[in-house]
Design brief:
The structure is a single chain. With 268 residues, this protein is mainly alpha-helical. 77% of the residues lie in helices and 0% in strands. The longest helix is centred in the middle third of the chain and has 28 residues. The N and C termini lie far apart (42 Å).
Length: 268
């Protein structure tokens, strides 16, 4: 991480280098570094708090990989350590909540006017995940869960690099689709991208809003990506972690989506 910051970042051009005026290598690499660095907060939390409770904390930063990676990692662990499945599902729900709040924060930093469209539904969705996480963790405590699981360094340089490449691809594709396929094409692309990652769509929508696409369409693209990502992660949890683990994640996802829909309806 230090080499990525001190050696690579200074030599990258701080200007767009593509024909569409979208890809800034310095900005993309900086985003990759920042997201990667945050993963260490979860690593330290597990070291300080302990591995059972730390499972919840470790899910929060999400690491340099897309939020989907936390779901897949916890699902694999649940298959290997079924005695800790509720804590792992709770960690997945916490990661879901934090990834949504992170997406909201990024969106508002890029374009504060997104607040009217995104703030209530995304905050409500995150709250639904947190309630579900608390319920799953409570049940885990009742059943005496919290096995000592192997602790691994959460930062993988190649994962961070892949995220940077994915972000660049999403930015370029978003610009091309916005210019040539209109709102429908961009929303379809946001849904497809959301199956793997939300942050890249948020950055794309924030940069294109008001220029390449209308601001309300950009906000809708973010909500579409978030919804698609939640559904996809629930499917991944069942497929990789089994039904016992997966049904908890599915329930948490349903609670989050219902809360987000209610927030969108009653929040205007």
């Amino acid at each position: 991480l230090l080499a990525m910051t001190a050696i690579v970042l200074p030599v990258l051009p701080d200007r767009t280098v593509d024909p569409w005026g979208t890809l800034n290598p310095h900005a993309i690499w900086l985003a990759t570094i920042l997201i990667g660095a945050v993963s260490y907060a979860g690593y330290v939390a597990v070291k300080v708090i302990g591995r059972s409770k730390g499972t919840l904390a470790a899910g929060a930063p999400g690491g340099p990989a897309p939020p989907t990676a936390v779901t897949l990692t916890n699902a694999r662990r649940a298959a290997e350590f079924p005695e800790a499945t509720r804590f792992l599902a709770a960690g997945t729900a916490v990661a879901g909540a934090v990834s949504i709040l992170r997406a909201l924060a990024i969106a508002l930093l890029l374009r504060p006017s997104f607040a009217g469209t995104l703030a209530v539904p995304l905050a409500a969705t995150a709250a639904g995940f947190l309630v579900a996480a608390a319920l799953a963790a409570r049940d885990g405590v009742k059943d005496g869960e919290g096995a000592e699981m192997p602790l691994e360094n959460p930062f993988e340089p190649m994962t961070a690099i892949r995220f940077g490449l994915f972000l660049a691809a999403v930015l370029a594709a978003s610009k091309i689709l916005a210019d040539n396929a209109g709102a429908a094409g961009y929303l379809a692309f946001a849904a497809a991208s959301g199956l793997a990652d939300v942050d890249a769509v948020v950055v794309s929508a924030g940069r294109l809003a008001g220029t390449g696409i209308a601001e309300d369409i950009a906000g809708l693209a973010i909500l579409t990506a978030v919804g698609a990502n939640i559904v996809a992660k629930a499917v991944y949890a069942v497929a990789v972690g089994g039904w016992v683990h997966g049904r908890i994640v599915v329930s948490a996802s349903a609670m989050a989506l219902a809360a987000g829909y209610a927030g969108a309806v009653f929040g205007g």
